[in-house]
Amino acid sequence: MNGRSVKSCAEKPLMSATRIVGLVVVLLTAGCAGLEHAAPGSERTQTGAAAGAVAAIEPVVPPAASTHAPPQTDASESGADVVKPMVAPVPPSVTPSAAHLAAKADSPAAKTRAKVVAPPESTGQVAKKPGAAPALVKQATSPPLDLKSLEMRLKETKAIGVFTKLALKNQVDDLLNRFRAFYQGRLKTSLAELRQPYDLLLLKVLALLQDTDPPLAGAIAASREAIWGILADPAKFATL
Amino acid sequence: MSKRMNAWTMIIVMSMSFTSPSLAADDVSLLKDLTAVIALLGMPCGEVVSATRLKDNDHVATCRNGNRYRVFVNAEGRVVAQKQ
After folding, report:
1. How far is B7 from chain A (nearest CA, A)?
2. Which end of chain B has fewer beta carbons closer than 10 Å to its terminal beta carbon, N or C?
3. Cβ of A222: how many Cβ atoms within 10 Å?
């Protein structure tokens, strides 16, 4: 009897201690869960450090577009600088290059699209300036590029991981080397044949971004032709 | 004694149940990254179901179809996937 009472007396504090410890554990883990929300900040730094997946192509804006979107001229002026990051061997922690599409481009693009809509509706204007309408339409379809903005967005995107960014960077560098060899006469092919790997690479990038970062994917998709315009022009490509 | 053991077991189980989700989140992102990389490199995999870290930027990924790849960054800075 005394033994049993002793045991019961010893067990009561043990159970209470157990409950206290368990409560402490619960509180600690809840605190850890709260820290997870701060993790994206660290992930951003990691992705920023690892960014370098896609070659940046300078946003060379067509001259016609500059009249409608002044920021584009700035981009074109800095085209040489923008192109360079594509070619430079960037370590995983630095500079992805891929097509820059400006977030700014969205608003000027909307304005240009609005302007473009007007001319076709007025047949008189169309009859007077038939050449201007197609040019305006082209401008509307090819929004101005802001490679720096797009580069930042690619660096910070959480849609793709470090390895994927590195692999994309490798493939972009390979594509640029093919273009370089083509322009140097070392590669017996045509621009049309180079278009296919270019489109394929863009598709890969879009496939990786479309679900988790749709705005960035849309920006890249919109810059497809503008980027090709840079790659297909020997003078512009030489500035890369 | 048995009650003590039960109490400690309960504590350990509770702590593990709350800590495991945070670890799983990082693992999931790594698995997705490896899945994307292997697909990007044109290797047959489907989905990476588990990964073993050998060292920094060096993992062995096990795919759902049974293939195993070592995914790492070589000295030239290229991502390589070697079938194991």
Report:
1. 6
2. N
3. 20
